[in-house]
Design goal:
The chain is of the alpha/beta class and 285 residues long. It has helices at 13-25, 50-62, 79-84, 104-108, 130-139, 158-165, 178-190, 223-228, 230-236, 253-262, and strands spanning 3-9, 30-33, 39-44, 67-74, 90-93, 96-99, 114-117, 148-152, 170-175, 198-202, 214-220, 237-249, 265-273, 276-283. The strands form three sheets. Strands 10-9-8-11-12-14-13 form a seven-stranded mixed β-sheet, with helices on both faces. A four-stranded antiparallel β-sheet has the order 2-3-1-4. A hairpin with a 2-residue loop joins strand 5 (90-93) and strand 6. Helix 5 (130-139) packs parallel to helix 6. It is globular and about 50 Å long. The model has no long low-confidence stretch (mean pLDDT 90).
Length: 285
């Protein structure tokens, strides 16, 4: 697929805010740091239009430390391969290191209790983003032993696989993106996890059967989807089960909290990193 390469001059916290903008307003396909220090963000060319460019100009007006430098259309460029080359092992939590398969020996030197191999493709979830790390940290606060787990928007499959490493019996990962389904399938094999342990389905929340319930549900996805599926999550969660939400910018957190509390969830804890939040809710009777 062709992509629009959109370049900015931004630094420090401004880059994190800019990434949040793209995650919220587009099918964000990746980013690169250029040799001159500028940042290039990639979105499908079908989403690059005058309305989106107007949103960018509005964003830059509100964030004077970010300068829009222009855009170009990239035809058939394997930007993802370029991005993959920059991926290093990351200590996502004090107990977990996430590494590409070509960096396993380096990853072992970090001395974490758990190691997950993620070879990044077009999917999200390498441990380098705050929302992934927040979900992983939240998972460490729960007893995963003998649980059934659902991972909505599974991406690379890292959240479901970490739950299995921490004692879960069975996990189902769903994603609307066929690239994510392919990547998760590859990562499942890299980590020697069986199909029986970790089932992967393509689709929305409707890919979960009506009678399936789970002790733990992950949903690291767009805020609008979190709001749309709150009822589905409640119906698929066991009594007193836990749901871990992320993909939430801090300024959206109160809206998410109110929606879930109105749907008979109780907030257990909230975690924050930079401009991102993760919430753990308990299903109420």
């Amino acid at each position: 697929m062709s992509h629009a390469a959109i370049r900015f001059d931004a630094s420090g916290e401004s880059r994190e805010s800019l990434e949040g903008f793209f995650l919220t307003h587009s099918s964000f396909a990746g980013a690169l740091e250029n040799d001159d220090g500028s940042m290039t963000f990639f979105v499908p060319v079908t989403e690059w239009n005058s309305e989106f460019e107007a949103l960018i100009h509005s964003y830059c007006t509100k964030h004077p430390d970010v300068e829009f430098l222009g855009s170009e259309i990239i035809e058939d460029r394997d930007w993802n391969a370029e991005w993959e080359a920059t991926i290093e092992p990351v200590l996502a939590t004090p107990e977990l290191v996430i590494t590409p398969s070509w960096k396993i020996e380096d990853a072992k030197k970090l001395g974490a209790k758990h190691l997950i191999i993620i070879d990044p493709k077009m999917s999200f979830g390498t441990g380098h983003h705050e929302t992934t790390r927040l979900c992983l940290a939240a998972a460490e606060t729960l007893d995963m032993k003998d649980t059934d787990v659902l991972d909505i928007g599974t991406g690379s499959g890292v959240l479901a696989m970490y739950a299995l490493l921490r004692g879960a019996n069975h996990a189902i990962g769903i994603d609307t993106d066929h690239w994510a389904v392919e990547n998760t399938t590859e990562n499942r094999e890299l980590n020697s996890i069986s199909e029986e342990q970790f089932e992967i389905r393509q689709g929305t929340i409707d890919a979960v059967h009506g009678n399936e319930t789970f002790n733990v549900i992950f949903a690291n996805i767009h805020r609008n989807v979190l709001l749309e599926i709150v009822g589905n999550i409640h119906s698929h969660l066991t009594s007193k089960g836990r749901v871990i939400l992320s993909g939430i910018l801090i300024y959206d957190a109160e809206e998410i909290r109110a929606a879930y509390e109105n749907a008979k969830f109780a907030l257990v804890r909230e975690l924050k990193e930079n401009e991102w939040a993760s919430m753990v809710f308990r299903r109420c009777e």
